[in-house]
Amino acid sequence: MRIAIIGMGNMGAKYAKYIKEDSSFNMTLVAVTRPKRDKELFVSEYIKDVLVYDNDKELFKAFDNKEFEIDSVIVATPHYSHKDIVIEAFKRNLNVLCEKPAGVFLKDARIMNEANTNILLYGLVFHQRTYSIYQYLYKIIKEEKYGKLKRVNYITTDWFRTNDYYKKDSWRSTYKTDGGGTLLNQCPHSLDLLCFLFGMPSKVMAFCNEGKYHDIEVEDEVSSYLEWDNGVTGIFIASTGENPGINRMEVTTSRAQITVYKEYIEIKYNEFDSEYYIKNNIDNSKITPMVERIDFKYDSSQKEVLRMFGNNRVICNGKEALMSLYLSNAMYLSSFKKKIVNIYPISSKEELDFELEFFDEFNKRI
After folding, report:
1. Are 224 and 204 in contact (CB under 8 A)?
2. What is the pLDDT of residues 133-180, one digit of tens each?
3. Domains identified in the chain and CATH numbers
């Protein structure tokens, strides 16, 4: 697969390095946009035989003029630019691998999907789906190995950032240039995991605290309550202002308490469902849970996403990527208007009404 990388900041530079160093990706790097100044030295040896253009417009112009041939592009630019670049790639019949999130607005991400009229390969870099720990969790939940799902508590406060992080890039930490805070920058992975593992929630009530820990206008802490149509409930908490933080997911099923950390899962489970003990008046003194711990090695997941794409597969397609963006938009709207927000099927009348309401409220913040 012949590749061009658009956006040579942190992630684009890393992808150029990966592609050059690992032939199993089945990719040949042909062209890139000009690296950010602080990445020029790092990436110089990986692009010395590669065409370099000032920006995406110049790169696409050169492609149109047949200065080079490619099959696909990797988009690793700031959030607001994703829609236009992806659509321009689809116009040229190019496959796309796009950094998360798909965009700032659910509406834009939906339009990106609709632009893929030739059904080209289109994936988002939600690499945490590839982690063996979450693949295992997905399997036991779907198989109902420990009974039916009841509740999910997900705390992800290990995204600690300093003020320098927000000041380093001029586009960060405003609604106008960045599109949001921790929900849109760090938490797309976490929200994607919630949707990947448990399906889309149907209701959300969220509280986004803006500039609680940092000198920024967007949120650096989120606390939210979730409901699913099947009766499952959940709590989601995230922060970039806590150190030490934690990444812990607690999954309650009818037979077990499953606690997921970064590198291991602990499962406390009973022989029967809780309902059995309730109906038969069997109290705690007569119940001895069994305990199992399963360890997992660290996964180099971004490499796996590239390898899959180079071999014509994606871990998260454009349609699936709508879920986490819909959820983050709903959390913002809930916090903005201090109300419970209902989540409807994509492209339904209610979802389109939601898009308009969110867009209106968001623009007030800009």
Report:
1. yes
2. 999 999 999 999 999 999 999 999 999 999 999 988 888 889 998 899
3. 2-127+302-314 (3.40.50.720), 129-300+328-352 (3.30.360.10)
